[in-house]
Design goal:
The complex is a heterodimer. By secondary structure, chain A is an all-beta fold. Chain A contains no helices and 11 strands. The model of chain B has no long low-confidence stretch (mean pLDDT about 95). The chains are: A mainly beta, B mainly beta.
Chain lengths: ~110, ~120
């Protein structure tokens, strides 16, 4: 079964830029994996940020962007704010109706 | 506005069963697939199952195959997760999430709306 790997933790300074990545054990991530990204804060349900690689929702702050980078899906936060401290998850479609979440990245703003 | 409200969680002994329900409102329910996702203590999000807009296709994560069954009732705007032979490692918050539109498929929004979750604890 596909394993999806994310950085366990990252630290960024307020106002800085950080890129989170999402890799597949099956090889390079392409648009055909339809990567999505989510933010989750303690005690809250996940909040969708990006779908199908780079598409934003109406509620997605402009500082969040999705892309493909070096064979991985990527989520870039530019001009990080303290409220962005959270866990971030990607999910990839692995075929046959199956979705696989990554292990999540804990982002600290310090 | 889209709302998803889960119910049916609780404390259950290993080997027993629970049926979760998710009541949906605010969108054309019969046009969308629906997913169940869980988060166990100290772990990340884990996809559990999906059911197509018409209920004809169902897919499961390997760890629940043969034990869990997803179903839906489009007339009641509800999706269900029947969980049998529960184990300690099934302890988690279970979320339902709105899936893909049958027209746009995976190219469109999916997992765009989530419920607040229902706690399932398997404890002897």
């Amino acid at each position: 079964q596909t394993v999806v790997t994310q950085e366990p933790s990252l630290t960024v300074s307020p106002g800085g830029t950080v890129t989170l990545t999402c890799a597949s054990s099956t090889g390079a991530v392409t648009t055909g994996f339809f990567p999505s990204w989510f933010q989750q804060k303690p005690g809250q349900a996940p909040r969708a940020l990006i779908y199908s690689t780079f598409n934003k929702y109406s509620w997605t702050p402009a500082r969040f962007s999705g892309s493909l980078l070096g064979g991985k899906a990527a989520l870039t936060l530019s001009g990080v704010q303290s409220e962005d401290e959270a866990e971030y998850y990607c999910v990839l479609y692995s075929g046959g109706g199956i979705q696989v979440f990554g292990g999540g990245t804990k982002l600290t703003v310090l | 506005q889209v709302q998803l409200v889960e119910s049916g969680g609780g404390v259950v002994q290993p080997g027993r069963s629970l049926r979760l329900a998710c009541a949906a409102s605010g969108f054309t329910f019969s046009n969308y697939a629906m997913h169940w996702v869980r988060r166990a203590p100290g772990k990340g999000l884990e996809w559990v199952a999906v059911i197509s807009f018409d209920g004809n296709s169902k897919y499961y994560a390997d760890f629940v195959k043969g034990r869990f069954t997803i179903s839906r009732d489009n007339s009641r705007h509800a999706v269900y997760l029947q969980m049998n032979s529960l184990r300690g490692d099934d302890t988690a918050v279970y979320y339902c999430a709105k899936g893909e539109d049958f027209l746009t498929g995976l190219n469109g929004p999916l997992f765009d709306y989530w419920g607040q979750g229902t706690q399932v604890t398997v404890f002897s």
